[in-house]
Amino acid sequence: MPTSSAPVSFDDIGDTGSVDETGIAVSWNQSEVIAARQIIIETAKGMLSGSVSPVEGARAIARHSFRARLEDDPDVLPFVGIASETESLPLGRERTHWQAQALADLQGKIDEAQAWALTVASTHCQSLVARSESLMRWPGG
Prior knowledge:
three-stranded antiparallel beta sheet; mainly alpha; 141 residues; elongated
């Protein structure tokens, strides 16, 4: 939904927003946006260090992109693509619902997807980490 570039303050507790094309005020909570951005930055750091799986990290970044108001960010969009391309692969807690043989049969494909995701994501993770200070500042704050 397109919005004007002029921010609108709704109250004194950090809620701000903008006016959309229909003239309706759209609110978002500053603390929620900053918290989602922190998750994205920490996930990117984890992906770079190897402590977070590239595919699971991409899924987390994609999942938090709207709340972080970064859904159109050129360093976030590739994670949405990775999440979309790998959505059929069972990872994390989801694996508990799969049969052992089915997981074993998919392991090669999962390994390939992890390697591909890391190749696609690395530069964008580095960029998000490098931009972390500016991403954590609220516009106008």
